[in-house]
């Protein structure tokens, strides 16, 4: 019995070998969010995965949002959460809370979990060293632009500080807050931020963790997950996608069109989904490739 268990483990390690060789030194940008970010067991598993990637010679970078944590902090502060066209309306008062939660709470939590394993993670905000520069984004309702406050669209990425951390053997953990040339602070979508950063870093992969198994071929009629599609195929599908999947698939599209060889959407509710995707022959989730 003990031998069988040990042999199964050895087989898993051998299967991982070609992938370990292939991705040695590769930069991988991981968008972290959803249930993987709120359930204790999954949080610890995520931290282990990221450290494993680091120790296996990859260069992981984590970009996170914090929707549920922001909503609960706004509730406590007595600030109502309103959404227009799927985007959180962000007043100056709300922005103070968003910034505090993302950079001061969620970011610290992730850094703390990773650093249980060693002095790896360094927390940053998109404001640091002008990492993300954004302009005010307007929502479109019935074809008309609507002001939704301090919600930003990234116009520029300066990855210098992130590269310096990677070269120093660290794991950057980045909150999706951006600055404007107008000195305004903006809340930016973390999927979009991760894609923009993956392009700027010329990453080998963008991985978006979500709360579904991947992109469904025919949602809601069936739950067959598309395991592979090209950027062109994805573009054709975009108008048919559910609102929750749009920013995630848009991020994958932006990444591969910007020169990132592979983008993936994975189910963050599956323990160690990152390792299953990168180091097994089957992989899980949906992979997007350039056309």
What this model shows, in words?
- The protein has 291 residues and is an alpha/beta fold.
- It has helices spanning 2-23, 40-55, 67-76, 92-114, 160-167, 190-200, 231-237, 246-257, 273-279, and strands spanning 27-32, 59-64, 83-84, 87-88, 121-125, 132-141, 144-157, 171-175, 177-179, 185-187, 205-210, 228-230, 262-267, 286-289.
- It contains 9 helices and 14 strands.
- It has an 8-stranded mixed β-sheet, sandwiched between helices.
- Helix 6 runs parallel beside helix 8 (246-257).
- The longest helix has 23 residues, at 92-114.
Spell out the blueprint of helices and strands.
Blueprint lengths: L1 H22 L3 E6 L7 H16 L3 E6 L2 H10 L6 E2 L2 E2 L3 H23 L6 E5 L6 E10 L2 E14 L2 H8 L3 E5 L1 E3 L5 E3 L2 H11 L4 E6 L17 E3 H7 L8 H12 L4 E6 L5 H7 L6 E4 L2
Helix pairs in contact: 3-4, 6-8
Structure summary:
The protein has 291 residues and is α/β, with parallel strands linked by helices. Helices cover 40% and strands 26% of the residues.
Q: Approximately how much beta-strand content do the residues carry?
A: 25-35%
Distance between the termini: 47 Å
Average residue-wise pLDDT: 94
Radius of gyration: 19 Å
The biggest beta sheet reads:
8 strands, mixed
Defining traits:
291 residues, alpha/beta, two-stranded antiparallel ribbon
């Amino acid at each position: 019995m003990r031998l069988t268990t040990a042999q199964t483990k050895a087989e898993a390690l051998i299967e991982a070998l070609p992938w370990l060789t292939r991705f040695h030194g590769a930069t991988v940008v991981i968008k972290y969010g959803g249930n993987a970010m709120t359930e204790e067991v999954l949080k610890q598993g995520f931290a282990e995965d990221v450290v494993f990637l680091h120790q296996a010679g990859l260069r992981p970078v984590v970009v996170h949002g914090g929707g549920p944590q922001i909503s609960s902090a706004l509730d406590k502060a007595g600030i109502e959460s309103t959404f227009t066209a799927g985007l959180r309306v962000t007043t100056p008062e709300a922005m103070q809370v968003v910034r505090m939660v993302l950079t001061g709470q969620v970011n610290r939590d992730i850094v703390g979990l990773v650093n249980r394993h060693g002095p790896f993670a360094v927390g940053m905000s998109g404001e640091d060293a002008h990492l993300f520069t954004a302009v005010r984004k307007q929502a479109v309702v019935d074809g008309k632009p609507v002001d939704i406050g301090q919600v930003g669209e990234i116009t520029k990425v300066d990855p210098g500080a992130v590269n310096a951390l990677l070269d120093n053997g660290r794991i950057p953990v980045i909150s999706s807050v951006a600055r404007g040339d107008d000195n305004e602070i903006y809340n930016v979508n973390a999927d979009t931020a991760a894609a923009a950063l993956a392009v700027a870093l010329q990453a080998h992969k963008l991985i978006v963790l979500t709360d579904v198994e991947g992109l469904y071929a025919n949602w809601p009629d069936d739950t067959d997950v598309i395991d592979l599609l090209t950027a062109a195929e994805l573009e054709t599908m975009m108008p048919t996608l559910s609102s929750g999947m749009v920013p995630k698939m848009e991020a994958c599209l932006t990444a591969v069109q910007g020169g990132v060889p592979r983008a993936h959407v994975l189910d963050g509710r599956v323990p160690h989904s990152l390792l299953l995707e990168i180091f097994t022959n089957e992989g899980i989730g949906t992979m997007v490739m350039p056309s």
